[in-house]
Amino acid sequence: MTEASPVRVLNSDLPLSPADDAARSISPPALVAHRFLLWLKSPRPYLMLVGFTLFIGFWYLAVEVWQLPRFSEMPGPTVVVREWFSRNPTYGLSIFTPEYYMHIWVSTRRVAIAFFLATAIGVPLGLFLGWSERFKQYVFPVFELLRPIPPLAWVPLAIVMFKGSETPIIFLTFLASFYATALNTMLGVESIDVSYTRAASCLGATRWQVFRHVIVPGSMPFIFTGLQISVGVAWFSLVAGEMVSGQYGLGYVINTSYTMVRYPTIVIGMITLGIVGYVTSAIVRLVGAYLMQWRTRELALGGDR
Amino acid sequence: MSVQPAATYIDPAMSAQPARKGGVRITDVVKVYGTAGAGVLAVDHCTFDVPPGEITVVVGPSGCGKTTLLNAIAGFHSISSGSIHLDDELLCGRQKLKALPGPDRIVVFQNGALFPWKTNIENVTFGPIMQGRLSRTEAYEKARDMMADAGLRGIEHNYPGEISSGVRRRVEIVRALMNDPKILLLDEPYRALDSLTKSVMHEALLEIFYKNRVTIFFITHDLEEAIFLGHRVVIMTTRPCRPKKILDIDIPHPRDYSVLTAKRFREFMDETAAAVHEEAIKAFAAGEKER
Amino acid sequence: MAKSLALKAVGFVSGDDFWRGVASIAVFLIFWEVGSRSHALFGFAFPWVSQIPAPSAVLQELLVLVQDPSFWMSAFLSTLRVFEGFLAAMVIGIPLGLAMAVSATFYGITFPVFEVLRPIPPLAWVPASIIFWPTQELSIAFVTFLGAFFTIVINVIGGAQAIDVRYFQAARSMGSSTWDIFRRIILPATLPSIVVGATVGVGITWAVVVAAEMISGGGSAGSVGGSGGGLGFFIWNSYVGGSYTQIVAGMISIGIAGYVSSAALRKIGKWLTPWLSEN
Predict the structure, then answer these.
(1) Tens place of pLDDT for every residue, chain C, 279 residues?
(2) β-pairing, B183-187 with B105-108?
(3) Cβ proximity of A97 and A268 under 8 Å
(4) Between chain B and chain A, are at least 3 CB pairs below 8 A?
(5) CA angle at residue C231 from C228 to C232, to 5 degrees?
(6) Rounded Cα distance, B61 and B237, in Å
(7) Do B158 and A24 touch (CB under 8 A)?
(8) Can you give the pLDDT at residue B261?
(9) What is the dihedral of CA C264, C270, C272, C277, to 10 degrees?
(10) Cα–Cα distance for residue pair C225/A258, rounded to 1 Å
(11) For chain A, does the N or the C end have fewer beta carbons within 10 angstroms?
């Protein structure tokens, strides 16, 4: 928490410091463009290029050119790329086959359902756990009792508990997300400075108003950290669930491609998972930034607080 | 050093003008933290008055328990015995050891407590809207006027994180004044500011005080700040906290920064510095942690 | 020390929190017991819970299992894999993270590649890993390694980048060499985040080991590698064999093992970073 420098105040006869004026004149698109130009001028994009060249180059040379002992079993980058963008893929899966999108859709749908359930249950639960000492004392022990069991260890039990093949997978995915969301939300509430709740009650807010106007927005940064983790672990357990039991979905693609010896498709599945996983967590981040503009703007100014 | 009894204090200004609001009477207040056996005595038989319409500054070493007293008035903490009255109305006492927080006594916090997720004007209008005292439009109108009055035009729709900390403190005081409180409770509000910013803030606070004539209860560990601002300065002993010396500062208001070099000001400083220093040494020896 | 610990324990047991916690867990267990026996008790099966074996049955199973050497063998195998993968992740991840934090060029080259690989869930690597590594054991160890690796690297980078620049200035002004700065400032200052990364990482490692064992040993990809053993395999085998009490007993064992590993790491972390206060 750095405080304003005295110069800011002394330099202006006006009651407002220059920092305050700057705050009003920054427009987001200009800021983005400015940052992009700075990025282009920095060595970073070129180093990044070097990094990817080295990575893919090594993959290519080791597998396709030198055919090093273990590497020769693996699909090389050109094989993968050719397969991935082929109109007539050898192993049946490329960006031109509808099955490809069907698998993506099935996986994304499962993650989305599990994520929304986990958010809808985890956020309120976390808020109450953090808000009410008594509620926490009664509920948290059970939560902590179950939490050390990794969600993936629930696979067989989930299959036993729920009918069909869809519900067990969604349950597993939900479980992992749920812990992350509820725990982070609770920590978020506990992180709120007591001055804020006191200030609100001083200003005449009722207990419910304090909850609505202080507890909920105050824990928002932690909630969104939790949601970020939650999407990540959702994909993590989804893949396990789909690989063990299930039909369709990217984990299923990876697993069956292995048993059917369609090795390039394994890599296509992995890359696709990486991309879809990244996009979903980017969406969560963007929603978070949109809902917490106070924080974005604070950070954009270098965080005076 | 003996404790001065809280003598009946007659404000010269009081007789000339109609009775003001916001006088606080602290009578024999004791606060023990923890259980009776292993408790820590934070406030020890504390008795003094905060005259209405004036600035009363409580000075004491960090961690001496003065914030405990403020929290008892605000209603954040209970007291163990004694009583506190606001304008002859019981806030807390034997039957009711903890006061209810309310918009007649508003605290301005040490590190500031503007809600960072609300814009400045949303912060300022928070009180009246929550209490349902004003409609949204009325509250915004009043807030705009008051902010303009305090020299805070143009930052209404910024977030507190976007303005300097000195300006933030001013917004916070405006947020408090929006509720027409009887008394403002300031808990070392300028502690984190550097001395130059602080001096600007002091004059701004006095300006607000002259305009609104709201009673101010101000806590600090800075003796100079205390004498510069206060009508009355209460010097506290280190934990447990008890008034050691109560001074009525007869330097006439309105004051500005020329006061700091005035002879009378130096006299008050000389008279009290030793007492404050003695307590600071005791606090240091006791190893009281900051806060 | 021992005395204060004992005092703390007494305070904890006699406190309200403790008894509320006990009450909460008791209610949970009763609900579970009644729920799983609901068909016998009420003639109508509660949804979901009725499919799970009752805690009393699970307890009996556990009592039998702890006398079975093959169960301990499974536990040992899983622990070994966790240990291997985790150790490899620490040994490779910490220097890599430090190098990335120290050198801007190295960071610029490696971090984007790292960030592209990171969103791929560790378990998606299982088939590729089986193809690449000569033995089943190595392929499970590799996937386990991946699970902890990313978390540890990210934490090391974060910790090293957050070091207050004044520490370097102070060290320089007192005449420290670059190596001194690395050894006496960067390393200890990063230690707390290494500990955090390791504690989180070991949890992920357990999750990955269990799943990898299920997938490669018992899952549908399974038959190829045959039985690799381990608790994950134990659970899957119990499922295939229809012994549901063993499933739950296996889950509880995994939970305990994971909890103990994290607790041990927290203890070690506390011992390594004595300057951090209790909270």
Answers:
(1) 444 555 555 555 567 778 888 898 999 999 999 988 888 888 787 888 888 889 999 999 999 998 988 888 888 889 999 999 999 999 999 999 999 988 889 999 999 999 889 889 999 999 999 889 888 888 888 999 999 999 999 999 998 888 888 888 888 888 888 888 888 888 888 999 999 899 889 988 999 998 888 877 644 444 333 446 789 888 888 888 888 999 999 999 999 999 999 999 989 988 988 888 654
(2) parallel
(3) no
(4) yes
(5) 75
(6) 8
(7) yes
(8) 85
(9) 170
(10) 12
(11) N
CA distance to A95, A256, A265, C219, per residue, from A86 (Å): 7, 20, 12, 31
Sheet strands (E) in B72-214: 81-86, 89-92, 105-108, 183-187
Inform me whether the pLDDT recorded for B117 exceeds 50.
yes
The tokens for B231 are 């009508």
Instruction: In whole angstroms, give the CA distance from residue B242 to residue B60.
Output: 10
Of the candidates C170, C252, C46, the residue with the CA atom closest to the CA atom of residue A161: C46
Of B150, B161, B179, the CB nearest to A305: B161
* Residues above pLDDT 70, as percent of chain A: 89
Is residue B106 within 8 angstroms of chain A, CB to CB?
yes
C225-232: long-range pairs with CB below 8 Å, 24+: C225/C130, C225/C136, C226/C136, C228/C77, C228/C136, C228/C137, C228/C140, C229/C73, C229/C74, C229/C77, C230/C74, C230/C77, C230/C78, C230/C81, C231/C74, C231/C75, C231/C77, C231/C78, C231/C257, C232/A153, C232/C78
ipTM for the whole complex: 0.84
User: Do the chains C and A touch each other, judged by at least 3 C-beta pairs below 8 angstroms?
Assistant: yes
Residue B3 CB partners (closer than 8 Å, separation 6+): B242, B243, B244
The closest CB to that of A153, out of C48, C117, C251, belongs to C251
Q: What is the mean pLDDT of residues A108-121?
A: 96
What local confidence, expressed as pLDDT, does residue B36 receive?
A: 57
Cα separation, B234 vs B57, in Å, equals 6
Q: What is the mean pLDDT of residues A149-159?
A: 89
Q: Would an 8 Å CB–CB cutoff place C59 in contact with chain A?
A: no
Helix axes A98-131, A133-146, angle to 10 degrees: 140
Q: Exposed (0-12), middle (13-18) or buried (19+): which is C40, by Cβ within 10 Å?
A: exposed
Contacts of A210 in chain B (CB under 8 A): none
Distance CA(B203)–CA(B257), nearest Å, equals 8
For chain C, the C-alpha Rg in angstroms (whole number) is: 23
CB contact under 8 A, A153 and C207: yes
Tokens representing residue A56 in the block: 């893919």
